Amino acid sequence: MNASTGSATARRMPLSLRHRFALLATLLGLLLSGLASFALLAVADDYEYVFANEILSGQAEDYGLRLANRLPAQLPQTQRLRGYRIDDPALPRVYAGFPLGVHEDPDNENAHVGVFDTAAGRLVFVIDLGDIEATERHLSLLVAAMLVLGTALSGWLGWLLAGIALRPVQALAEGVEALPVQPQPTRLAAGVSDDDLGRLARAIDGYQARLVDADAHEQAFLADASHELRTPLAVIQGVAEVLQDDDTASLAQRARHARLERGVAEMRRLLEAMLAAARRKPLQIETVDVEQLLREAADMALAGRPGIAVHVDAEGELQTASREAVLLIAGLARQLVQSRTDGTLHLDLEPECLLLRIEPEQMDAVSASMRADIGTGSALLDRLAARLGWRMAFDAPGRISIRLH
Prior knowledge:
The chain is an alpha+beta fold. It has 10 helices and 11 strands. The strands form 3 sheets. It has a 5-stranded mixed sheet, covered by helices on one side. A hairpin with a 2-residue loop joins strand 10 (391-396) and strand 11 (399-403). Helix 8 (322-336) runs antiparallel to helix 10 (379-388). The longest helix is centred in the N-terminal third of the chain and has 52 residues, at 17-68. The chain crosses the membrane at residues 139-162.
């Protein structure tokens, strides 16, 4: 995978609900911290203007009254505060052009200039607020730090609170994930609060109840279908056996009768496999003799094929559902010998594995299709194997291994 593909995959990955909540909390913290910082800086700037205006206007009023009443008064000329008459040659020209009011010096951000009309004429006062400006710069740094820390704190609190708030959701998700494949009633709503989450849990409980009802109807249908299909199959099989016993039939008729009997037997096996795979009841696990199990499966698979011999090499016992196991092994063996009229079917028990093979081996269309990665080629056999928990591997043409665990 190259870098562009990796970045495109990363862009497509959705954020979890907790990440989204934390991101929203971070953005909210950024917004609130930004508004608080803007308000604080605006108040500090207004405070500076009010402070300068009050000092300068107070100085102008005091000195104006003194000068108008011809009291001894000398305009201040200190480093922080300086006063000028409008006609004073020492007054900087830029200040002489200022209108009435308090203004900032465009050449010196620390200086504020106040122009006032008093009883003694127009007076100009200049005050140096460098200490306040330094404090404002420190305040700006503090506000920037507050903005960063406030945003980070909001994101962390959002992540923490999202985790606490989503614990019931996670518990509900774990409860749903723990549900078995077979439908069963649930009471998830009893373990959560009576809010939107409770509504979701009740919806899942209701859905599970509908699945249980649908499964019950399906099982009832399968039971009815099993009963109704077995009766006509038994009649057809009986007729096929009678036709096979007809000594007056020609060789061609006998061949057709044999094909009919094999077809009926195959249909019966498929019906049994379908019902065994679709059954919802737990498997009846029992201890069975492996050799007897394999011989029963071989007899079922080779019915009507006298040209194929059977060799069983198996000793010991096996814990399994015998009925389903026989149907699966017989179905797999049937596929191995489907296109054969002679040969030997071997059924061997190896450690943790059953081995089915046909000799002599030959490559044919059936074996090739069984070696594909889509399974046995039979949905019924695949479902039976999944129900038993067995895994099948098609090692070579005419060879199937069944992992029992």
